[in-house]
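quick one if you have a minute, typing this from the bus. below you get a single protein, a line of residues and a line of whole numbers that encode the local backbone shape. could you go over both lines and see whether the tokens make sense for that sequence. anything you notice is useful, everything is just below.
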Amino acid sequence: MVNILLCGANGKMGHAVRAVASQQSEFVKIVAGFDVMDTTADDFPVYDSIEKVTEKIDCIIDFSHISMTDAIMDFAKANKIPAVICTTGLSKDQLSKMEFYSKETPIFFSANMSIGVNLLIDLVCKASKLLEDNFDIEIVEKHHNQKLDAPSGTALAIADAISDTVAYSPKYTFDRHSVRKKREREEIGIHAVRGGNIVGEHTVVFAGTDEVIEIKHQATSKTVFAVGAVRAAIFMKDKPAGMYNMTDLVKG
């Protein structure tokens, strides 16, 4: 049994994790929550400060806000508790801090907790290697109108994975309207769409002279991310210090 501290317990993703955890009650149990809105859940307490948590915790799942991430990482490090960080839009300083803390504390971080998205990244890398000499690469991501960061962390993770795969050094282009010139071969265009209640959609376009190939992933509910987070929490129990990601989870 994995005892979970759920950060962001009263948010939309917090509710999604609750639902998934209740379906997997033989493996996991949410024993406490942390949220600035400290409305107590039906079966576990929710604290407005993570320092108030005294329950025995085997793993932290964080779906809160970037303003809370530092305190959560500090708590994980101080108590040597594995942490699954699912919050997006983290700063470079926060990512560096996470890497530094992982020398003493096991930390799982992925730009997207969907196993399907991580499969997409793997397929995109294979395609990029085969097509890099003759195809232009563009990334289009779509999300709901409440998402704060743009482009999405997942879109950037896809671009970074492509960059690590191809022989040249890609240049990320986020906006073309201000410069009137032809597209450069080394560009990876990254485009953000915000509207309605789109959960998440990522499409990688390989545009050649006579053909176009698209690899696409679409999430139709937040449950896919909650499932990935709960699986990661189970995976992280009793892991030694270090950085872990979805590739480690898939490999088992």
Notes: The chain has a mean pLDDT of 93. The longest strand covers residues 136-143. The CA atoms of residues 177 and 183 lie 12 Å apart.
